[in-house]
Amino acid sequence: MSTNKKNNSRPSSNPATSTRRSGSPVEAARKSFVPAESDVATETPASGAGTVTKTSTQATSARQAARLERQRKRRRQQIITWSVVGVIVLAVVAGVVVWQISQGPKTDSSGITTFGTLSQSHVSGTVTYPQVPPVGGPHNQIWLNCGIYDKPVPNENAVHSLEHGAVWITYQPNLPADQIAQLQTLVRGQTYVILSPYTGLPSPVVASAWSTQLKLQSASDPRLASFLSTYRQGPQTPEPGAACSGGVGTPLQ
Questions:
Q1: Who contacts 140 (Cβ-Cβ below 8 Å, separation ≥6)?
Q2: Most CB atoms closer than 10 Å: which of 209, 227, 239, 242?
Q3: Architecture of the 112-231 domain
C-alpha cells in the first residue's frame, strides 16, 4: 500500500506532458533565434526614383523650349526673307518706272524732242509707229536710198536709213512751192539726207533723226539747218557709217 503511494508521487516522464510544458523544439528554436540587422529585409524606396522623374520632366521641357525657339527663328527668318523680297520688288518696280520715265519723250528748250531707246529689229510688212513721222523702231531690213523725193516714201525703209545716221526732212504736201524749193536747196548735194512730202504731218515741216525730232512752222526756220548739221551722222546714230545708198527707192537727185 505504501509502495503505490510512493510511485504516484514521482514526476511523470511522459514526453507529451514534457512537450506541453516546455513547448516543441521548433517553437523553442524559433523563439530563441534573433536575426542580425543585416539579415532583416527592410524595403526602402529607391533613392533615385524622384530624381529620374524630375530629370525626365526637365528634358521634355527643354525639348519643347528648343522647338519653340526653332519655330520663332523660322518665323523671324521668313519675315526677314519676305521683307528683303519686298524691298527688292519695290526697287525693281521703281527702277522700271524711272527707266520708263527716262526713256520717255523729252523736249528741250530749242524744241527738239528725244524718245529714248527704240527697237532696231527687222520686220516685214507695215509697222504702226507712235510718232509722225517715225523716228525709229522696228523697220524693213532694206534701207531707203538717201536723196530728194517728190512723193511719199515707205516709213519702214526710211526708218532703216535713220538707223544708219540719215536725217529725214518731211513737209506737208500743200507746203508753198517756194518753201519746198528752199528745202531742196538746203539738202541738195548732201549725203545722209532724205527729203520727201508726208501726209498728216503735225506741223508744216518736221526734221527727224533716230529717236530725235524737231517740228517747224516754216522751211526758213534757222533751227532746221542746225538740226541737219548736228544729227546727220550724229551721236544718236545706232549704226554710224552704214550705207545710205544701194537700198530701195529712186530719188530725184
A1: 122, 123, 124, 154, 156, 157, 159, 160
A2: 209
A3: 3-Layer(aba) Sandwich (3.40)
Residue found under cell 513737209: 171
Give the C-alpha distances (Å, rounded to integers) separating 188 from 151, 183, 229. 16, 9, 14
* DSSP 8-state class, residue 38: G
pLDDT in tens, 117-167: 999 999 999 999 999 999 999 999 999 999 999 999 999 999 999 999 999
User: How do residues 182-237 score in pLDDT, each as one tens digit?
Assistant: 999 999 999 999 999 999 999 999 999 999 999 999 999 999 999 999 999 999 99
pTM above 0.70, yes or no: no
Q: What angle separates helix 222-231 from helix 177-187, to the nearest 10 degrees?
A: 30
In whole angstroms, what is the distance from residue 194 CA to residue 245 CA? 11
In terms of Cα–Cα distance, which of 209, 202, 227, 247 is closest to 118?
A: 209
Residue 74's SS3 state is helix
Domain range summary for the chain, segments of one domain joined by +: 60-103, 112-231
